[in-house]
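Batch job 17 of 40 flagged for manual review because the log was empty.
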Amino acid sequence: MKYLSPLTVARLRRLRKRMLRFRSPHGLAGPHRSRLAGLGQEFSQHRQYNDGDDIRFVDWKAFARRDRLYIKEFEEEKSLRVWILLDASASMGFRGSAAPLSKWEHSCRIAMGLAYLLSLQGDYCGLCAFSEGVRARTEPAATLSSLTAIDEALASLSPSGRASLPDALPLAMSGCERAGAFILLSDLLDESENFAAAAASIKRRGSGAALFHVADREEIELPYSGRTLFSELEGGSTFECEPETLRGEYASIMKERLHLCQSACHASSVAYFPTFTDLPPESALENAVGVLSGRLA
């Protein structure tokens, strides 16, 4: 697979005990379990018998020891349907001089890593790549062939077009039926007030939501010197300036923007993970899995 190498698979397998965990509409998904009397695969606990309980699940050995009726409860694993929403707009194609990968290539590797981790725990993972419209969609599944389908869909795309998140996300999510959780990967190059609405929308549609905010450090730090011509990736307009004269103000604006994005996610209960393209995509996955496991366990 283009975006899931054997080396990455070996690294991700070590994360198996810290799998992504989202709350599903019917209990806890993936390695999380819902406790039901008499159902499931693994014994959980006893509880005292109540009128109307099915006597098939009475623990008669416990009755003999304690002279009381107890019901056996088991834990039932529930699979989750997760949709990965991937920004495929033109700005995602940017790659700074110090980055080994563009934002798009970096995001594709994170998306495939997420899909692989979810499939390991028996959850269903689908992909929707979008810009001005839906560019590619694979239906949720938990098989090797579904991973291949996601990888092939990503390999067939190149970033292009615009993506206004408040407009693009509802369109992308409209075909994501029975979703338990959404994971958005985007550079968030949209107005901050628009992003606040977008963050709220992905949380409303799913019981769990997470955002990987993908950025290149050159976009944050503006490290250029001398007379430089900048081109807008999604509009085509150009702007020439000396970056040294703007760097301080620009850095303050970008810092505030990152804070606004993080605050919008926090307000909407969307897990927020900034990730930079000069770091390995697997590092972003390791950090995210650890945090999500702790928060949602």
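Reviewer: the log was empty due to a logging misconfiguration, but the result itself is present. The chain has two domains: 6-25+79-296, 33-77. Unflagging and moving on to job 18.
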